[in-house]
Write a structure and sequence with these properties.
Radius of gyration: 22 Å
Structural class: alpha/beta
Largest sheet: 7 strands, mixed
């Protein structure tokens, strides 16, 4: 029986925790997650999804605001785990903590390392126009996603892939990659290999990353909009109000109108056409400030924007 301390916080980590709980050869002896945080319009204190999962399975759960304390070090040492399994935990572990597990501190990362090290690999892979992504199971070291890799699994990205759809795919894939390999690591038949290739960063997203402009290539802008959905979303201004752009695709059609000009609806009325520096961005869903999301046809007939411009938010 493998003793495991699980570290994770958001919904993305839940399938992996569920997979470990379902494995009769594993015992999740403790869960470490982030403190409860205010959420929603009412700003009610809300537990992380991983905490809710741990409580549902009666697993002891700890939420230290700071992990690197003598008390947490002693607690984790006394648990005597074979593995740490971390996924989307949100904190970097010091070497003294990484040395606690008898076999290895493991981490599941939602990119094909060394690409997209950091907090937002799913979003940045789409925003940068990647056609593949995946999951790596690595042995943690003291760096930011720099440890050697035990296993990797790649998937192709759909042309319409958003951060929301890829999040679901890689959450499920992470659980699969771990359960397929953790016992091979335990019996010594699988060893990690150093990361190879040019590293890139995936820093945490801020609201300002959503501020877009149309003075660019339509395909690049489409990728950025899809990577920004559902948060922080691509945002422009129109008639002095913020407009969030949710669902898009790119057209290679050449136009001479200034970037940002709203050209009208496509023939089937399912997309609003906006001129870019190269090509056209077809927008399917928009959300004016203070309103619910609406389809392109509803926006067009409600605001009559043809010939006007979407402007960058500054």
């Amino acid at each position: 029986m493998l003793k495991i301390v699980f570290m994770g916080s958001p919904e993305f980590a839940v399938p992996t925790l569920e997979a470990l709980v379902a494995d009769p050869r594993c015992q999740v002896c403790a869960v470490i997650t982030q403190p409860d945080k205010p959420a929603g319009r009412g700003r009610l204190m809300t537990p992380p999804a991983v905490k809710q999962c741990a409580e549902a399975h009666a697993i002891p759960c700890y939420q230290p605001p700071i992990l690197k304390t003598p008390e947490m070090f002693d607690l984790l040492t006394d648990l005597a785990p074979d593995f740490f399994v971390t996924i989307a935990y949100g904190k970097i572990l010091r070497q003294a903590f990484l040395d606690i597990p008898r076999l290895a501190p493991l981490n599941l990362h939602a990119s094909l390392l060394p690409k997209y090290r950091g907090a937002a690999p799913i979003q940045w892979a789409i925003m940068q126009g990647e056609t593949t992504s995946g999951v790596c199971l690595m042995r943690m070291d003291a760096g930011m996603d720099t440890g050697p890799v035990y296993a990797r699994q790649a998937i192709d990205l759909a042309p319409s892939e958003t951060a929301a759809t890829l999040h679901e795919k890689l959450a499920a894939l992470s659980a699969q990659v771990l359960t397929q390999n953790i016992h091979r690591i335990a019996n010594g038949s699988l060893t990690p290999v150093p990361q190879d290739g040019e590293p890139s960063a995936a820093p945490i997203l801020q609201k300002s990353h959503g501020y877009i402009h149309f003075d660019t290539d339509a395909h690049a802008l489409d990728a950025r909009c899809r990577g920004l959905f559902p948060w922080p979303t691509a945002v422009v201004t129109y008639q002095g109000k913020r407009i969030a752009i949710h669902m898009t695709h790119a057209l290679e059609t050449h136009v001479s109108s200034p970037p940002g000009t709203i050209l009208g609806l496509c023939p089937d009325s399912k997309a609003l056409l906006v001129a870019c520096k190269q090509g056209i961005l077809a927008i399917h869903t928009l959300q004016p400030e203070g309103k619910k999301p609406m389809d392109a046809k509803s926006f067009f007939h409600g605001y009559r924007p043809e010939g006007e411009q979407f402007l960058p938010l500054v």
